[in-house]
Amino acid sequence: MISQKSQYAVRALLELAKRQGSRPVKAAEIATAQWIPMRFLENILGQLRQAGLVESVRGKEGGYRLARPAEQVSVGEIIRLVQGPLSPVDCGDGRGCA
Predict the structure, then answer these.
(1) Which helix (H) or strand (E) holds 96?
(2) Cβ partners under 8 Å of residue 66, min gap 6
(3) CA distance 38 to 28
(4) CB 63 within 8 A of CB 56
């Protein structure tokens, strides 16, 4: 199961990917556009910055931007970063997943 925090992280990076090539995006803009509570977003952006997925730009016109091209970032990478290793899903019926 994917945690709410992982979902927020994916949505935050999606918003940055949509705005790639423009000015840095303020955290409040990401929160508003993706309906992510600011208290969660600030923590998530810090974690993504430490992992090298986003860069922060200081100053009045500062904000966040992707640290590398969007096509080089996978959803799985984001989820593993926030939630930890992914494990296989057991379908539970003994026949395997269809």
Answers:
(1) none
(2) 13, 16, 17, 20, 53, 54, 55, 73
(3) 7
(4) yes
pLDDT of 59: 93
Q: What is the pLDDT of residues 28-42, one digit of tens each?
A: 999 999 999 999 999
- Average pLDDT estimate for 48-75: 96
Domains of the chain: 4-83 (1.10.10.10)
Residue pair 6/79 in contact (Cβ under 8 Å)? The answer is: yes
Place of tokens 């269809």: 98
Task: Give me the count of residues in the chain.
Answer: 98
The number of C-alpha atoms within 13 Å of 68 and in the hemisphere containing its C-beta is 9
Residue burial 1-11, b: 16+ Cβ < 10 Å; e: rest: eeeeebbbbbb
